[in-house]
Amino acid sequence: MLQHLAKEQVLSIVDYEGLIDSVSKALIKLHEGGGIAPPRFSTSIKGNWWGLMMGYVEGMGVGVKVVNLYPGNAAKGLETINGLVILFNGDDGSPLVTIDGGSLTGLRTAAASALSVKVTNASTKVLGFIGAGEQARYHALVFSRVFKVEEAYVVSRGERRLSEFLNYLRGLGINGHRASGVSEIIERCGTIIIATTSTTPVLNVKPRPGEHVISVGAPKPVVEIDRGVLEGADCVIADNREAVLNEAGEDLSNLRLIDLSEALAGEVRCTVGNGYTIYKSVGFSILDVAAAHHIYTRYTSGAGR
């Protein structure tokens, strides 16, 4: 019988540094021609986003994922991101494992964001969060495990979700604060994580020099960053340039986008300094393959058991 790894198993198995390393290796492998990442299929069902994607990484396998985003689930106490990932052997095509897609998506997205912090040399001592949902939680979790994080300032439209997120931060050992608004987050934080489903920009003010902005909300119609803020950045990194240009809700026309793989390979520099940097992510299949391979390898080695 094909093994299925549920959310609880995924979270007990994952090694955070190992996950980030797996994502980094997969991105570099793709950059070197050792991977395939076809455009994903996406559609809207009753106003909720659904995506179907597949990818291949040499030495890691083939991953296929069905995932959805139901923002209204938060008010019902349900997961807003649901999905399923199947990892196949890339040599003979045999299925290896199925993995909960919600947790895998959250972890791999945060892992790629962590890589953007590493290549920009951004500070994570004080984090800012615009949005307090599941993606914010996964970013707080991963960042707390691989970086030195002492404080976080948070703004969110929902009072209950904000309170729950502040409690979650405390459980991670992070001193969480309610921010009075985006301006306070810009004033206090070194890295700002935007994880919303807003269809209008939530970051309309340019960050301070030395700050790094991470935008991971969702593909179209989500829009998180104002065009003027994008234009003012020293550099803008994309998790995957083609995917971001095709799927991001922001106007990215005539902007020079650096692919995260190029920065990881050392071909392009994009570091915080006299200006600010931006990382834009819409997610793509190579991240799923890397994360699934990491989780499966950990499982078969006996981790979490």
Please specify the SSE layout and strand pairing.
Blueprint: E1 3-5, H1 7-13, H2 16-31, E2 35-36, E3 41-45, E4 48-57, E5 61-69, E6 81-88, E7 95-100, H3 101-120, E8 126-130, H4 134-146, E9 151-155, H5 159-171, E10 175-178, H6 182-188, E11 191-194, E12 212-215, H7 227-232, E13 235-238, H8 241-247, E14 257-259, H9 260-264, E15 277-280, H10 285-300
Parallel strand pairs: 1-7, 8-9, 8-11, 9-10, 11-12, 12-15, 13-14, 13-15
Antiparallel strand pairs: 2-4, 3-4, 4-5, 5-6, 6-7
Describe this structure in words.
This protein has 305 residues and is of the alpha/beta class. The protein has two domains: 3-104 and 286-300, ornithine cyclodeaminase, domain 1, CATH 3.30.1780; 109-284, Rossmann fold, CATH 3.40.50.720. Helices cover 36% and strands 25% of the residues. The strands form two sheets. Strands 10-9-8-11-12-15-13-14 form an eight-stranded parallel beta sheet, with helices on both faces. Strands 1, 2, 3, 4, 5, 6 and 7 form a seven-stranded mixed beta sheet that branches. The longest helix has 20 residues, at 101-120. The radius of gyration is 18 Å and the shape is globular.
